[in-house]
Specification:
By secondary structure, the chain is mostly helical. It has one domain (6-94). Helices cover 65% and strands 0% of the residues. The protein is built from 5 helices and no strands. The mean pLDDT is 85.
Length: 106
């Protein structure tokens, strides 16, 4: 597995987020994804999970996930992404959930 210092990981994450942000601004069909970030870092899913749980690295990964989620949310709200696909991805990758309030009136 590839080994990064926190500074190296932060730099690689920033490069990925900047690249997908630029493509997003140009209306590219390339969407930001956790898989894309994992691939950019040269990691497997297991390696990504390792860094996500490693002290000193967890905030770097968490903020990267927030950035990816933000870009997908913006794409969903702006109409750049297909609604169903964006919602499915946000639920699957970021544990979004729908809450339905039930009000029983007798």
């Amino acid at each position: 597995m590839k080994r990064y210092t926190p500074e190296e990981l932060q730099k690689k994450v920033k490069i990925y987020i900047d690249q997908v942000s630029d493509r997003f601004a140009l209306n590219s069909p390339d969407a930001p994804t956790v898989g894309g970030l994992t691939r950019h870092l040269g990691l497997t899913r297991q390696g990504f999970k390792y860094y996500k749980e490693l002290p000193g690295y967890e905030d770097i990964i968490e903020l990267a996930l927030v950035d990816i989620s933000k870009l997908i949310e913006e794409g969903l709200l702006s109409g750049k992404f297909k609604t169903g696909a964006a919602i499915f991805y946000l639920k699957a990758a970021f544990q979004w959930r729908e809450n339905i309030a039930v009000n029983n009136v007798n």
